[in-house]
């Protein structure tokens, strides 16, 4: 075996992806690795999202690291706190925390003399051979641009900044937004609060989620026979990554038709009042916005203490929310379930590649890379969740492992000795982005709705092909598409 160069590596972010990168780097023999994490604890999205009702909306046996199958998930779709506990347990097992610098946000990364000079909130960290970004996509909260937000006299906060010590029992709560987050909150809060108002700007398609506890005998069986756990994973993976994902990108019209029917039937059979049903019926294609899965939303919104408000919001006032029909909805608490700026990615970090070119400038017309992992002109810069990652299609942990597996091949090339810089060729990236643009119109995301997949330039940020194509692309870099020095 040839000797490996001892590379100094920085990982940005200690969420599920950053932890995985560290574990896999150590396994591959790289030990000089530091994770920079701006918060004080690990866990990323599962640390930040602690709102009532937060659960994974893919079955948990499909949401795990390949190297840490978990026979003990308590429910078909585990609560967020359990997923966070899982991540913490993995971190303990692999002694991840000794490599994390908590409370340090990376503010700058400058490519200079063949290395990345990295700066954090506590100053210069020196030179690194490569940087791996693992900062998540659903990370920067968006607050609605509604006049009067500051004038509200009660509590108001974003779902990703939940006030854990606030008791909502007996309160009048207003939630703005109807995405996956608001839908989960609705199911959990309606039974607890005095009055619940859900401010809907756009109706959402919802597919029924089969939820429930996993019996002890089942867990024992999974513990005793890992091959059964693996086949459960394969079954879920097939269902989600192959059938559902192929339907969304137009590669499986029969599966898509079935999905449409399931959503229509669910609405039809769950909501009795025709007026309410009409308000809850979207006017765009199933899957155009990210499909919501829920087991209790329709039931909750029909409870006597719940109200679906569809009159547009005029402004926020001291005592509540005023809608355009002139009505004041008096509230004690306002929750902004208004989502995330998924296109900010690594901003506001100042990243400068070859010749001092800012990533901000390279991405002025929209975020673009090569196969979502690398960017031309930015050598040794590897992204988990870069532009055109499959953010709307496959299980995130699976995506992250695939992308990092690809990045690792490039990092190993750097470690072999005769190459110290690796970046995609500009023409390879151009070809990839032209292919993306050609494929996107065939996907359901392009059928005419607004969603967090689409940026302000109209670019759709997701992966427009099947899971099988993604897996194949990630399995081995096309070396001719890279320039190395
Ligand atoms: P989202 O899907 O982006 O939904 C934001 C909601 O806020 C939309 O209903 C939007 O309405 C509304 N909104 C935004 N600005 C508004 C304004 N000024 N006035 C009125 N309404 C406004 O955000 P999210 O629900 O947080 O979900 C984001 C993603 O996180 C999901 O799609 C999913 O991928 C992920 N997630 C996953 C889970 C899970 O279980 N794994 C749970 C929660 C979230 P419009 O539709 O009209 O824009």
Q: Could you walk me through the main structural features you see in this protein, from its secondary elements to its overall organization?
A:
The structure is a single chain. The chain has 485 residues and is an alpha/beta fold. It folds into two domains: 9-42 and 96-140 and 341-484, FAD/NAD(P)-binding domain (3-Layer(bba) Sandwich), CATH 3.50.50.60; 149-213 and 220-336, FAD/NAD(P)-binding domain. It is built from 13 helices and 21 strands. It has helices at 16-27, 44-48, 80-93, 180-189, 216-224, 226-248, 253-270, 274-279, 297-301, 359-362, 396-415, 426-439, 467-475; strands spanning 9-12, 33-37, 100-102, 106-112, 115-120, 123-128, 130-133, 155-158, 172-176, 195-199, 206-208, 292-294, 306-309, 313-317, 320-323, 328-330, 333-336, 350-352, 381-383, 422-424, 482-484. The strands form six sheets. A five-stranded parallel β-sheet has the order 3-2-1-7-19, with helices on one face. Helix 1 runs parallel beside helix 11, helix 6 (226-248) crosses helix 7 (253-270) and helix 11 (396-415) packs parallel to helix 13 (467-475). The longest helix has 23 residues, at 226-248. The radius of gyration is 23 Å and the shape is globular. The model has no long low-confidence stretch (mean pLDDT 96). Bound molecules: NADP nicotinamide-adenine-dinucleotide phosphate (NAP). NADP nicotinamide-adenine-dinucleotide phosphate (NAP) binds at residues 55-57, 138, 144-146, 176-182, 184, 201-202, 290, 313, 337-340, 450, 452.
Give the arrangement of secondary structure elements.
Layout: E1 9-12, H1 16-27, E2 33-37, H2 44-48, H3 80-93, E3 100-102, E4 106-112, E5 115-120, E6 123-128, E7 130-133, E8 155-158, E9 172-176, H4 180-189, E10 195-199, E11 206-208, H5 216-224, H6 226-248, H7 253-270, H8 274-279, E12 292-294, H9 297-301, E13 306-309, E14 313-317, E15 320-323, E16 328-330, E17 333-336, E18 350-352, H10 359-362, E19 381-383, H11 396-415, E20 422-424, H12 426-439, H13 467-475, E21 482-484
Parallel strand pairs: 1-2, 1-7, 2-3, 4-18, 7-19, 8-17, 9-10, 9-17, 10-13, 11-12
Antiparallel strand pairs: 4-5, 5-6, 14-15, 15-16, 20-21
């Amino acid at each position: 075996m040839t000797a490996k160069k001892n590379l100094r590596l920085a990982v940005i972010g200690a969420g599920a992806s950053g932890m995985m990168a560290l574990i896999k780097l150590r396994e591959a023999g790289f030990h000089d690795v530091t994770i920079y994490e701006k918060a004080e604890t690990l866990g990323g999205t599962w640390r930040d999202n602690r709102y009532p009702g937060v659960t994974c909306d893919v079955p948990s046996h499909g949401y795990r690291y390949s190297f840490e199958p978990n026979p003990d998930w308590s429910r078909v779709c585990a609560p967020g706190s359990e997923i966070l506990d899982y991540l913490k347990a993995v971190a303990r097992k692999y002694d991840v925390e000794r490599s994390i610098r908590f409370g340090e946000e990376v503010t700058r990364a400058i490519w200079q003399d063949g290395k990345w000079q990295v700066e954090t909130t506590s100053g210069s960290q020196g030179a690194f051979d490569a940087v791996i970004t693992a900062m998540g996509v659903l990370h920067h909260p968006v607050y609605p641009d509604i006049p009067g937000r500051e004038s509200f006299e009660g509590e108001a906060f974003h779902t990703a900044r939940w006030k854990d010590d606030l008791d909502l029992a007996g309160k009048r709560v207003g939630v703005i937004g109807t995405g996956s987050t608001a839908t989960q909150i609705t199911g959990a809060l309606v039974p607890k609060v005095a009055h619940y108002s859900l401010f809907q700007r756009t109706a959402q398609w919802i597919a029924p989620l089969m939820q429930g506890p996993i019996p002890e005998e089942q867990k024992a069986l999974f513990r005793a026979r890992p091959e059964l756990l693996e086949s459960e994973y394969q079954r879920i993976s097939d269902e989600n990554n192959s059938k559902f994902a192929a339907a969304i990108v137009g590669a499986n019209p029969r599966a898509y038709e079935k999905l449409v029917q399931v959503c229509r039937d669910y609405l039809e059979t769950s909501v009795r009042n025709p007026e309410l049903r009409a308000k809850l019926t979207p006017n765009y294609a199933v899957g155009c916005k990210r499909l919501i899965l829920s087991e209790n939303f329709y039931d909750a919104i029909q409870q006597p203490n719940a109200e679906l408000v569809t009159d547009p919001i005029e402004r926020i006032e001291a005592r509540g929310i005023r809608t355009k029909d002139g009505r004041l909805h008096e509230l004690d608490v306002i929750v902004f379930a208004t989502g995330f700026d998924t296109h900010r990615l690594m901003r506001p970090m100042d990243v400068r590649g070859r010749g001092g070119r800012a990533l901000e400038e390279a991405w002025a017309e929209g975020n673009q890379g090569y196969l979502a992992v690398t960017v031309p002109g930015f050598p040794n810069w590897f992204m988990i969740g870069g532009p055109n990652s499959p953010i709307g299609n496959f299980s995130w942990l699976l995506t992250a492992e695939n992308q990092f597996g690809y990045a690792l091949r490039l990092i190993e090339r750097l470690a072999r000795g005769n190459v110290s810089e690796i970046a995609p060729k500009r023409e390879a990236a151009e070809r990839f982005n032209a292919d993306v643009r050609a494929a996107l119109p065939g996907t359901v995301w392009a059928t005419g709705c607004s969603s967090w997949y689409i940026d302000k330039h109209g670019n759709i940020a997701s992966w427009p092909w099947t899971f099988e194509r993604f897996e194949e692309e990630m399995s081995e870099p096309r070396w001719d598409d890279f320039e190395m020095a």
